[in-house]
Amino acid sequence: MVIPYMPMLVPPVNWTGYDKGGHLFLPSYVMRTHGVRQQREAIKRAPRKQLEPIFEALDTLGHTKWRINKKVLSVVDRIWASGGRLADLVDRYDVPLPDKPDTDDEAKIKKWKWTVKSVQKENRERYSLRCDIELKLAVARKMKDEEGFYYPHNVDFRGRAYPMHPHLNHLGSDLCRGILEFADGRPLGKSGLRWLKIHLANLYAGGVDKLSHEGRVAFSENHFEDIFDSANKPLEGRRWWLKAEDPLQCLAVCITLTEALKSPSPETFISHIPVHQDGSCNGLQHYAALGRDKLGAVAVNLVAGEKPADVYSGIAARVSNIMHKDAQKDPAIFPDALHARTLVNEVDRKLVKQTVMTSVYGVTYIGAREQIKRRLKERNAIPDDTELFGASCYAAKVTLTALEEMFQGARGIMNWLGDCAKIIASENQPVRWSTPLGLPVVQPYRKLGSHIIKTSLQMLSLQRETDKVMVRRQRTAFPPNFVHSLDGSHMMMTAVACKKEGLNFAGISLIGPFYCSPFFSTGPLLGCRASSTTKLVPGVDVLYPR
């Protein structure tokens, strides 16, 4: 299997221009413009001095050294060889197609056809997931004997940083993050040992991650027997680690924590495990900061507290209250009452989390419906497809209503930004701005025109950009793109600040949390929850969002 843009065995070339940096020989570009001429010209015209903060941040991210966690990879290989199905790995086998019923009943035939289509769709999805896993494992097996490797980074047009290698990287799934670790380890120290226990509770989740720091430490200490069993007999023992929300990352921490605690001196044990610093709905954090919204700041942890606030649980509680009221209504007058009765016990933070996260990107009703439908389907809450669709429509409507009520300030700023973009685009101009780090951004949304090419055999119709901008797209895309650019700048500034303090850093600038590694020498960092008020602590290596 030939995979281009593999991780590098030597540090990437420092960026000095649009196409100068990154890989040694493969074509590398500092920005993923996807062929958009206006954005490409803007980045090329920008003075090098203006782009130096971007180059410095990308070089910092690219020089973080990684390696494969062989013990976790060995467990993954065993699970995969035995058919998958554990630790969120897809089943390696297809679902068998149902037999056609021996009847002329049209209703039964119709139901069979729908079932066949559903099974075929499931099998196509399984095939896609299997291919994805095979690609990730192919890279891991190729790199597992290397001392370390590097991921050169570049940015998208909004200024969000990504590794240029697309398959096995720290932006990926639990599988990727479970089998990746820092190549350069450090002694845990007393504080690092404590944070490793907190990290384990965060990965286990299920409400444990919402406890105070001391509560999370106590959770890990109360499960030492399960942790040791998971590390020593991951597949033959009680398999406690499989109950975690991120099972493979949980297993990696179980192994390291077991080795540290059973060593002669746990505090001097060399750990390679990253400890995550989890932000909470960064998009809403930025809106709360932009609007000086104190209540919103508390909801998304811009204000430090003993226990982290959970905006998703808050929205879930509002949705649940609305559904409880709707469930009491007469279905003859209010048809959604039936859906409310079906869903009232299904509402939790996981059901609404994705919709809340994407609300800052202007998620539509259809998008919210599909997100909630996937969550309900995952838990097999409503087997009938028709009823599932209706329930998803109702749940999406209620969730968006709860969001409107709870985040009126954020919605007001989004609307103001959209109005500004509409005025600009109505003059047939794309919306432009510069990020806090000086990166020029040009929204690429223009109308497409067709270009006909006649040949002796056929006529080809090619699409190309015209000079007319898409007013609606420019307006709807500006608020989320602007917030993404702020979040990307924040992450890059954190990377550069860590470098100046002598700390390693890896991260992503998607709207999401930052994480860090377990080497603390002084007080806690997590109270700031990766907000714009984050303070650096000597001895911390920062990692990536979850």
Number of helices: 18
Unreliable spans: 509-546
Fraction of residues in helices?
Answer: 40-55%
Main pleated-sheet profile: 3 strands, mixed
Q: Return the average pLDDT rounded to an integer.
A: 86
Q: What is the rounded Rg?
A: 25 Å
Instruction: Count all strands and give the number.
Output: 14
Cα end-to-end separation: 29 Å
Using the alpha-carbon principal axes, give the shape: globular
Question: Which tags fit this structure?
Answer:
546 residues; three-stranded antiparallel sheet; disordered C terminus; mainly alpha
Please write out the topology:
Elements: E1 13-17, E2 20-22, E3 31-32, H1 37-45, H2 48-62, E4 65-68, H3 70-81, H4 106-143, E5 149-150, E6 153-156, E7 161-163, H5 174-179, E8 180-182, E9 186-187, H6 189-204, H7 213-222, H8 224-232, H9 247-261, E10 270-271, H10 282-290, H11 294-299, H12 311-327, H13 336-343, H14 349-358, H15 365-378, H16 385-406, H17 408-426, E11 432-434, E12 440-442, E13 446-454, E14 459-469, H18 471-500
Parallel strand pairs: 3-6
Antiparallel strand pairs: 1-2, 4-5, 4-8, 6-7, 9-10, 11-12, 13-14
Helix pairs in contact: 2-18, 6-7, 6-9, 8-9, 10-17, 10-18, 12-13, 12-14, 12-16, 13-16, 14-15, 15-16, 17-18
